[in-house]
Amino acid sequence: MSNLTPTTRRALLKKMAAIPVASVASPLALQMLGMANASAAQPDGYKALVCVFLLGANDHYNTVVPYDTTNYNAYYNVRKGAAIAGTPYEGIALTRSSLANTVLGTTGLPSGIQMALGPTMTGMKTLFDSNRAGIILNVGPLVAPTTITQYNNKSVPLPPKLFSHNDQQAYWQTGGKTEGGTSGWGGRSADLILTQNDQVALTCVSVNGNAVFLSGGQAQSYQISTSGARTLANRYFGSTAAANALRTLTTKAGHTHLLENAHTQVMSRALNTYNDVFGAIGDAPSDGLKNQFPSANPTDGSTANSLSLQLQMVARLIEKNATLGLKRQVFFVGLGGFDNHDFLALQHPGLLDRVSKAFVEFNGAMNTLGMSDQVTTFSASDFGRTLTSNGDGSDHGWGSHHFIMGGAVNGGQFFGSPPSIGLNHPQQVGSGRLLPSTATDQMSAELARWFGVSDNDMGTVLPHSGNFDLYKLGLFRN
């Protein structure tokens, strides 16, 4: 570490105190942080990645819908069925007339191909039309580029436990591991920039519970609720003494058991961070920021949009990034309910409506804060769905379509290759399950590079990335 200045050494030592790698910072841990600090790009202002996870596997066929006559007919002929009263569905197929208000431009698509969004996603269409959002086509987990012949012959390594919810959620988030993986590519990206943040504990923040996406070698997820940071009550069962005793028990160091020490470290970190978070963001969003999230704060008695509430909390933290001394942050939010084996026509439109409104509101908040160019938001999900119907819904698939949004995004266009539509083409592995034409590593590599991960470090962040032709999607303007 002789290449570090005294100021940098002091900063490293100070920040190590906030990272629960051990009861005391080991020389190896310090060396790792020093190496990470040296290899990461120096911050050019604030940047944040926001992962919006659609838990349960979103039906991409009814999210980004074929609209040109040839492909729509192929879609409709597989999904058609009896008309469902009060909905734009016939079977699990959307009627073509219901898509008229959400037809998208064709930049990035081959001649003759058109697509539309689900009818409840008019807000997302506005973001796309105004070049604030783009769509990444047929992206999914791959270990290496794979053709249908290679898939059938198993002549290339395949992601393990395909079509399994837990395992494929983990594969997306970890960049190559199934359930049980201990670190995610968001956390590993954060490892490289930890020393650039004054408040290290707030580098990786989840507003949706525990997420392996945010765990790194050193970086750990700080979990916060939609209503804000929480601490132990000053009185427990009416007793101050009981509250103090609980605080002592949960933060006492020096346990001999590994899990006891880990619990102590997590509790201590949370309690120590509470004062900084509460002091910066208070106990409620400002009126100006609150007004940017109408679906999170309904005035008509309707239920609040849980995804919008989560993104409102993300916006509150981003608003105070300078106060908290933050240069880089990674966030995780999520919305469940997408495992629509049944009642697809009744449930899916409402889910897409919430997603669309939350994206629009978050975009408006970032514009108001002047942070649009510094924040990139993207969607992810377990996997796509089958084109075929099981009678009332769709089943587990593989590749799917996803959104990316932000001021730095090369928006208003499609990225990657549009899939053929049907049951007898070389891009599907049965029942219209799409064989991904773009790997999650290719999508993630461009996000990580924009965030500040160097090309030399990309293999650490995304272990399989060397198997792919990277940086060809063109997600960002620069």
Outline the structure in words.
The protein is α/β, with parallel strands linked by helices and 478 residues long. The protein has a single domain (46-228, 283-467), classed as Alkaline Phosphatase, subunit A (3-Layer(aba) Sandwich), CATH 3.40.720. Helix content is 34%, strand content 12%. It contains 14 helices and 13 strands. Helix 1 (6-16) crosses helix 2 (27-39) and helix 4 packs across helix 12 (344-369). The longest helix has 26 residues, at 344-369. 48% of the residues are buried. The model is unreliable at 1-14 and 16-43 (pLDDT under 50).
Q: Kindly, what is the distance between the CA atoms of the first and last residues, rounded to a whole number of angstroms?
A: 33 Å
Output the CATH topology: Alkaline Phosphatase, subunit A
Number of helices: 14
Low-confidence stretches: 1-14, 16-43
Helix content: 25-40%
